[in-house]
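Model it.
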Amino acid sequence: MCETQIISRHIGRLGRRSFDRRMRIASPMFVEKRGELTRLLNEVDKLSDRLHDDFPTISEEDYRMFGPELKVLISTLRDLRQESLIRKELKPYNDRMRQQIADLEELDHDIKAFRVDAPKNKDLQKTMAMLNSLDFSKLPK
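Modeled.
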């Protein structure tokens, strides 16, 4: 079992912070705070790293706990990026945000496909068992 509660708290905190940044960017009184946005993006990187590291141990129960929050975070980051596209002073952050959103979406898909759905797929389980039984040491080098 992965560190579900830590991941869940991390996702929730990032969701709130990204929503807060989105509101500030949308405000006509917005004063650019590159440091805050940089810190937010660094935290998203840390979350992605944690999800990558914990991927082999994430269970369906874990995903039920943090999956909905992860989807909200992705949506909020997508909205933050859309808002920042109209602010020319935030242009340097757009590529990084786009990549982070794509990374989180891929992680979300992979967790659902390989850690939640794959264990339930009997045909896939049979195929994996057959592959694991093959002796690859006899293949020519």
